[in-house]
Amino acid sequence: MLYTGIDLHRRSIVVCTVDESGNVLARKTMHTHHELVSTYFQQWPVEQHKAVVECTTGWYWLCDLLHLLGVNIVLAHAKYLKAICYAKVKTDAVDAKTLANLLRMGYVPEAHQLPPEYRAMRDLLRQRMVMEHKRTNIIQRISSILAQFNITQLPCSPSQNSFADFLDGCSLPEEYRMTLLMYHHQCVQATEHRKQLEGYFKKRLRPTHRVQLLMSVPGIGDITGSIIAMETGDIHRFADTKHYCSYCRLAPGANNSGGKRGHRSGSKDGNQYLKYAFTEVAIKAMMFYPDIKRFATQLEQRANKAIARTVVAKELAKIVYYVLTRNQEFRTFKGVKIDKLRDWPRARKPVRITGESITSPLS
After folding, report:
1. What is the pLDDT of residues 178-204, one digit of tens each?
2. Are 52 and 108 in contact (CB under 8 A)?
3. pLDDT tens, 254-311?
4. Where are the chain's structural domains?
5. What single DSSP character describes residue 339?
6. Which of 193, 239, 287, 346 has its CA 20 to 30 A from that of 50?
7. CA 342 centroid distance within chain
């Protein structure tokens, strides 16, 4: 069996191949061209070859190419890999050889690979969140500038076309007016792009079986259901609810030493997009479901609003785990059948719920 470590960069790639004894058979630095990479790996039989690459920016094309060639490619978890392969001398060649030897010994912490056919949809959902954050930042900048002139009450949103007429009626210096108009045009464009993306997601993802199951959970709508479905992937890769909540960044870390115990918050381990989605779901659930709001209020009396919101998000993540693993719609919240305060603003397309196992993000 042959093992190849790959140190991938934007314009270059360093590969090192070792045998079962750790002897270096080949080492090469090349440009990131498909032909050069294919030629290198075609030197040996693909059925006796394994490769590993870190999950850094730009690994999509390399994994797809090696899968096409028939090479078994392992995606290494960059953070956990760093914890076990510290070296005083760190070069691209050393990194490639270290990766190859870790793969040979079976010490590579493997990261999850979403099937290629779902990557584009997941990345588009992520881009929507990035665009939404930028839009929010623009609105905050507009409010900040207007506050300098004691204008705190706006008759309309900066994303509406009538906001330009509002600016015409304000006695502002020309420089500030020009800045606000530019921000206004950016906000209008970002809002239009958001509507286009959400319409696309509702058309493509809302009718799918998994999103329909998720939309039965309190607080989950079209977009948050789509985010949870695509970011979770195969739910069976999580052993239990503890592992899933930890992946969603809803479980605190630990800092125990010398008989002292403490929680470590603010950890970046896990999926930031699921953290965002479940936080939004918790806010909506507390708005529309009195029982969930009552549960959150009890938590606020012992802690604070932020902790209460996170605990509600964690409980909803547990519900999502059981909904997906059992392939059943939501029934109870902490053993109690809950009622809505008013109709949840969503439209669900009736689908036939079966007892089949869910293994793909949208099945």
Report:
1. 999 999 999 999 999 999 999 999 999
2. yes
3. 777 777 776 666 677 889 999 999 999 999 999 988 889 999 999 999 989 999 999 9
4. 2-105, 118-204, 209-326
5. -
6. 239
7. 30
Q: Over 73-140, what HEC string results? A: EEEECHHHHHHHCCCCCCCHHHHHHHHHHHHHHCCCCECCCCCHHHHHHHHHHHHHHHHHHHHHHHHH
| Residue carrying structure tokens 């509600």 | 312
CB of 167 closer than 8 Å to CB of 177:
yes
The rounded Cα 103 to chain-centroid distance in angstroms is 27
State the first-to-last Cα distance of the chain, in angstroms, to the nearest integer. 36
Residue listed under structure tokens 């020009």: 178
Q: Kindly report the pTM of this predicted structure.
A: 0.85
23: three-class secondary structure by DSSP = coil
Collapsing DSSP states into helix, strand and coil, what is residue 162?
coil
Whole-angstrom Cα distance, residue 132 to residue 302? 33
Residue 261 DSSP SS3: coil
